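Final report, section 2: Outcomes. Of the targets proposed, F-box protein is the one most frequently requested by collaborating groups, and we therefore present its record in full.
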Amino acid sequence: MHKNIGDQRNNWNSLLLSSVNMITLTAALMAGIASVNGHGGDSITAVKITSTVLLTSATSIGALMSKIQPSQLAEEQRNATRLFKKLRIELESFLRENEEVNEEDVKEAIQRVLALDKAYPLPLIGTMLEKFPEEFKPATWWPENKQRNPKTGLAKGWSQELEMEMREVVRVVKSRDAEEYEKLGNVMLKVNRFLAISGPVLTGISAVSSVVIGQDSGLAGIVAMTCASLAAIVNTLEHGGQVGMVFEMYRNSGGFFSLLEETVKSTENRENGDVFETKVALKLGRSLSELRDLAKRSNLSLVKANEFASKLF
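The predicted structure is given below as tokens.
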């Protein structure tokens, strides 16, 4: 379902963008014709009315696209599809490895499904994620209150050195990777907000200007054509460039680092230490030796200014 909805919303983005730009540029052309022949009688009046109607429609469609951000909606569902597949694999693996499943295991699985469904909702009305929050916040697709097993000392492959290594890795992730994506996310949020407002405003100005074309001055026609052309450019930058999708990618990446940090803190005395170290290294795109070297340099404050924990993104 998430995959199908994601494909649908990706089609929305391309089809609506093509439609609104075609409407806008057609209306701009008609405004130009009306401006050249400002006193041409009923035929020019019809051209003016048509131009105004088209520009008003373009304003409405552009405002709707800016509100729902189809490219971001599509990226949300792509992430949901990937994470649901990952969750299914993890649950199947758990069932293969454990002959008995207790009530707590079932509750935890249900909580994970519900948290993921809440993080990436399917409906648009009532549950759609806020596309322009006050500030950037990483995506959260896991339960807030996870069941944690009691600590069992340094068993299962854990040692003081490994605990120190994981703490240093988390420190680098938090201070470098997560901070960088938060900064980029805030920049992209501001850019997207500016473009989302500019497009409908420009087409709205163009629509108003087209109404007064032919009244003693050619200025109205110039304004109508210029604003309509600029609106088409802005729409192309925003939706053709899929700025909303890029913002959602930053949200998802920030969530990945938050989950990694939480997993390290909650799992260090529960999962086999050697296996967990390997998993962390793979998630960050590093070998075990590179991960250990990063932790050592972090402990000595020798991490390079442009170095991040993750080599994948």
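Residues 68 and 125 are 10 Å apart (CA to CA).
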